[in-house]
Design goal:
This protein is mainly alpha-helical. It has helices at about 10-20, 25-35, 40-45, 55-60. The chain has a domain at about 10-60: lambda repressor-like DNA-binding domains (434 Repressor (Amino-terminal Domain)), CATH 1.10.260. This is XRE family transcriptional regulator.
C-alpha cells in the first residue's frame, strides 16, 4: 500500500473518502460500524479537522488504514521498532 504524507487537515477529507471507497464501504456502512449516523460520517469526512483523535483512529481502523508517525526526513521503516528512547 502506498504511504500518504499529510501536512494539513485540509488533506484529510479527500483521503478519508478515498480510503472508505477503496474499502468498498458506503458512508452508511462505515457510519454503522463507527456507531454514528450517515450524516455524522459525512460531516466527519468534510470537516476532519474538527474530529477527535479517538474517533479518527476508530474510523481509520474500520477502513483498514494504519496511522504511522515518523520524524520528517527519516526514511520509511516497516520494521515496527520504536525509537530507542522509549
Amino acid at each position: 500500500m502506498r504511504d500518504y504524507t499529510v501536512h494539513t487537515s485540509a488533506q484529510l477529507p479527500m483521503l478519508l473518502q478515498a480510503f472508505r471507497k477503496e474499502a468498498g464501504l458506503t458512508q452508511s456502512e462505515a457510519a454503522l460500524r463507527l456507531g454514528v449516523t450517515q450524516q455524522t460520517l459525512s460531516a466527519l469526512e468534510r470537516h476532519a479537522d474538527t474530529v477527535s483523535a479517538d474517533r479518527l483512529l476508530r474510523l481509520l481502523s474500520i477502513l483498514g488504514v494504519d496511522l504511522v508517525l515518523r520524524k520528517s526526513g527519516e526514511p520509511n521503516s516497516s520494521d515496527g521498532v520504536a525509537p530507542s528512547a522509549w
